[in-house]
Amino acid sequence: MGKFILIAPFIFTFILLYLHHLRTNKNTKKDKEPFSLIPYIYPAIVSYVVSLCFLVILIGFINILNSPSYTAKVIDQHIWDPNEKLHTALIEFKDKDNRINQKILEYNEETQLMQGETVKIYFQNKADTAHTADSKIITLGIFGTFLFILGILLLWAILYALGKDYSFIIKMGLTFLLYLVLPAGMLFFIGVFGWLLWEYFEGRKDLPIAVIGMCSIFITVLIPAFFGYLKMLFKNKENKDF
Question: What pLDDT digit, counting tens, does each position of 37-95 carry?
């Protein structure tokens, strides 16, 4: 599998650049200009890295999606990092072959699992740690987002190499950026800074005054900026409709 992951993007990149070379040089004479590999080095590196990342994430996505879920029992627990609210617990469960397994469960929740409690978990074969079923959904969502972005880039590269119209991909990318990525990014930072302030005022985190001030400033700026950005987007959409 390791060799396939490294070789497949190389083959894809070679085919892509070869098709692009044929398209751009089909009307030129062979003796008019000597062939040079230099213009193809940077596109080859970018294509190889993007296709390699896409393949690695795709395989990880499929493995996590197909990983079985089990009901496990906590037989021991301890806090690994109290500051980050990251807990670990020793769990026991039976797999599909009815064999008893003991794994370390990592979870990031406010409530610590107690000994004797049951929890839904998933784990991949040969993995040392297990994860909660909720974290599986989050991980699949993150992987799926990256697959979508990298897939759009690869589709654009294929259409460009073939000389096809790729304007719809640019429009799709801009729409994805303006209507999803930027608003989601603003909400993410509002949530992070708000959570830090909440933890501080609840007495759970001891933060410097400078950090509290920066969080307050960012929240004060980001909240009206978020609603103003949404207002601008909907206003531009109404103008386009007319």
Answer: 777 888 888 889 999 999 999 998 998 888 878 888 888 876 555 555 567 788 888 87
pLDDT of residue 242: 46
CA distances from 90 to 11, 68, 139 (A): 44, 18, 22
Tell me what the mean pLDDT of segment 125-130 comes to.
71
Two tokens, residue 135: 């974290």
Whether the CA torsion 31, 36, 37, 39 is positive or negative: it is negative
Give the chain's mean pLDDT: 81
- Nearest residue to 109 (alpha-carbon basis) of 124, 142, 87, 83: 87
Find all residues with CB under 8 Å of 131, minimum gap 6, and list them. 105, 106, 107, 121, 122, 123, 139
Contacts for 39 with CB less than 8 Å, ≥ 6 apart: none
The neighbour count for residue 67, using CB atoms within 10 Å, is: 17
Backbone angles phi, psi at 224, to 5 degrees: -65, -30
- What pLDDT is stored for residue 110 in this prediction? 59
For residue 40, what are the contacts with CB-CB under 8 A and spacing of at least 6?
A: 17, 21
